[in-house]
Design brief:
With 114 residues, this protein is α+β, with helices and mostly antiparallel strands. The protein folds into two domains: 42 residues, no CATH class; 56 residues, no CATH class. The model has no long low-confidence stretch (mean pLDDT 92).
């Protein structure tokens, strides 16, 4: 019995501690972003008001990397280009089918789920 506890206890500890180890998902290269020509920066849709989007150019992140535009720092600080992912233990539970797959912020066509 003592041997079983000595074997199982470290796994339980690692599993519980794994909930404290988070992850993040960065926006994919096909994600559509907006260009602010006045500041020469690009922003995620969450950082742009709907009324301004009709006057802003759209590109993918991949295409914008070939230009001299900078990422909008304020948008980055607000989490515009990342999504909180599952913890280490959450990923394990997801891969074993105990919890559903985390829905990503981005669709295959480059649009965003906001």
């Amino acid at each position: 019995m003592k041997i079983a506890v000595k074997i199982i206890l470290p796994f339980v500890f690692i599993f519980v501690a794994g909930f404290g180890v988070g992850s993040s998902i960065t926006s994919p290269e096909h994600a559509i972003i907006y260009i602010d020509e006045s500041t020469e920066t690009y922003l995620s849709p969450s950082c742009v008001s709907k009324s301004k989007t009709q006057f802003m150019a759209q590109m993918t992140i991949k295409d914008v990397r070939n230009l001299t535009l900078s990422i909008n720092k304020e948008c980055v600080n607000r989490g515009g280009f990342v999504q909180n992912g599952r913890s280490f233990s959450g990923k394990l539970l997801e891969s074993l089918g105990f919890i559903p797959k985390l829905k990503e912020r981005w669709n295959n066509d480059g649009s965003w789920n906001w």
